[in-house]
Write a structure and sequence with these properties.
The complex is a heterodimer. By secondary structure, chain A is mainly alpha-helical. Chain A has two domains: 1-36, no CATH class; 37-143. Helices cover 67% and strands 3% of the residues of chain A. Chain A has six helices and two strands; from the N terminus they run ααααββαα. In chain A, helix 3 (49-82) runs antiparallel to helix 5 (97-136). Chain B starts with 5 loop residues before the first helix and ends with a helix. Chain B is built from eight helices and no strands. Chain B is mostly helical. Chain B has helices spanning 6-30, 35-40, 47-58, 61-74, 76-100, 108-113, 118-152, 157-196. Helix content of chain B is 82%, strand content 0%. The relative contact order of chain B is 0.16. Classes of the chains: A mainly alpha, B mainly alpha. Chains A and B meet through helix 1, helix 3 and helix 5 of A and helix 2 and helix 5 of B.
């Protein structure tokens, strides 16, 4: 039983029990229970420029890339359905354009994955670590 | 119609089950008991092992039986399905997994409910996950039923259903006992076997 009368998390209406009673933080946090961060702190970081930059960096990669591969894949499907003459043209030896395009889809998938990993390691991870440091005060370095 | 001797098939299946169960239990008793171990394999798998495990995920009944059958029956159009699987993985990568990166959470429900009310958001996430899994499992179970009929000579629907339910219970045991570590090891073994053995 909690000895104080006030709720343990005033800005979180779902949490009625004291911290050590609540199983959710330990079950859901990767490197151990995170410090409870006040609403005001979240608002501040949410408005901050660093966070806006992180969000733009992510969106500027993910959305165009998604549009590109969706368009490329639908082009492939539509050509397969309606442009039989084009797709059955021989490309290299007895491999026709249709097969080559299918294999190209494989190649582009691997390429996009590689580009994403490079982008995330180079641009997203440092920004995110910096924001986390700011919010949790160096906890991210201790947890690795 | 059945293929081979059903007793031999069941025996081989039983041997595989025992070997993988042993691996899962050994992994479970050696590893820690924290949430990180259960959900993220204790972060002890490197990129290559995780990649092989994901490949093992995709080498499923739907791939081996469904796609192979579609290509055999419909020719080139079956190939379009398998390319669809592949490109859909990119959707999961860029639009679902990417926002979860660096959040320090395990599941989509955790991230969504972090700053919102836990209960309704988690219910919604669980419902949508179950709905998607249901349709996915339909295809897998159809393949499993066909396999059981072929290898064990069981053609009666209820008996097939019983065997499939048994396999389902086995899968639940794998996940509950082994967590991510156990299932990742099972997937790695499966991927290696499925690629090497036909070769």
């Amino acid at each position: 039983m909690s000895s104080s009368n006030e709720p343990p998390y005033p800005d979180d209406p779902e949490r009625h029990l004291p911290p050590h009673h609540n199983p959710l933080p330990e079950l859901t946090d990767v490197d151990g229970p995170t410090k409870h961060i006040a609403q005001a702190e979240f608002e501040r970081v949410h408005q901050s420029e660093d966070f806006a930059q992180l969000r733009t960096t992510f969106r500027r990669f993910a959305f165009p890339m998604t549009a590109v591969f969706v368009f490329w894949y639908f082009l492939y499907v539509l050509l397969s359905t309606y442009a039989h003459g084009f797709m059955t043209m021989p490309f290299i030896g007895y491999i026709n354009v249709g097969m080559a395009m299918g294999l190209a889809q494989f190649a582009t998938t691997f390429l996009i994955t590689w580009l994403y990993v490079r982008h995330a390691n180079r641009h997203l991870d440092p920004l995110a670590a910096q924001l986390r440091d700011d919010l949790e005060g160096g906890a991210s370095h201790a947890a690795g | 119609m059945q293929l081979g001797n059903p007793i031999l098939n069941m025996a081989i299946f039983g041997v595989f089950v025992l070997i993988t169960l042993f691996i899962v239990v050994r992994v479970a008793t050696r590893s820690g008991k924290s949430a990180t171990d259960f959900y993220a394999g204790g972060r002890s798998f490197d990129g290559r092992q995780n990649g092989i495990a994901i490949a093992g995920d995709y080498l499923s009944a739907a791939s081996f039986l469904g796609i192979a059958g579609a290509v055999a029956v419909y020719g080139y159009d079956g190939l379009l399905y398998s390319i669809g699987f592949l490109v859909a993985w990119l959707v999961a990568l860029l639009l679902v997994a990417e926002p979860l990166r660096n959040t320090g959470k395990y599941t989509m429900a955790d991230v969504l409910s972090f700053r919102m009310q836990q209960r309704p958001v988690r219910t919604a996430a669980a419902t949508s996950t179950l709905a998607v899994s249901f349709f996915y499992l339909l295809a897998q179970m159809a393949g499993a039923g066909g396999l059981v009929a072929l290898l064990m000579g069981i053609t009666d629907r209820t008996q097939q259903g019983f065997v499939i339910a048994l396999v389902g219970v086995l899968m639940i045991v794998y996940v509950l006992v082994g967590g991510m570590k156990g299932t990742t090891w099972v997937q790695i073994i499966k991927a290696v076997l499925l690629i090497l053995v036909p070769a």
